[in-house]
Fold carbonic anhydrase.
Amino acid sequence: MSFVSDILEFNEQFVQEKKYEKYLTDKFPEKKVAILTCMDTRLVELLPKALNLRNGDAKFIKNAGAILTQPFGSAMRSILIAIHEMGAKEVLVIGHHGCGMTQLDSTSLVEKFKKNGISDVVLSTLENSGIRMERFLKGFDKPEDGVKHSVGMIRKHPLVPDFIPVHGFLIHPDTGKLEWIINGYQSENEQ
């Protein structure tokens, strides 16, 4: 049986037994918060539990390293929608120790693309179109650098109101211990 077949079989039983009922909520975050975090599998259940969040409490936006790569990309759009449409009153950027984006090697990743069948023609076409792999696949030296970068981009975004606090945290992916790196209640000059 395939992975998708297993999922579909489980899902049918899940719905028939009404196991979804304990997760019922609406689309508006109860705690009025949007959280940009990493897609790391260790954080899927740990992060909400470590923050005392239940289903429906927050809007979670996930990507590699919790890094905003462009001010008008999809992750930033999600943050803006969380604020302006969903009523989020605060934004948390939560990176983590041991992140795979730490010192990501773009050259090695391009070699993996090739190994997985991406042709040199495709890669050179992208390069000729202005997509620089070393920039597109750039990570960071320390996880707090990624958090600071994303917080800065959100704070400076022309569509984020000044009254929205933007905080930066690191979480330990084993214990859930949080470190508050950037206090969004203080101005940049106070930190």
Q: What stands out?
A: The beta strands are 33-38, 58-63, 90-96, 166-171, 178-182.
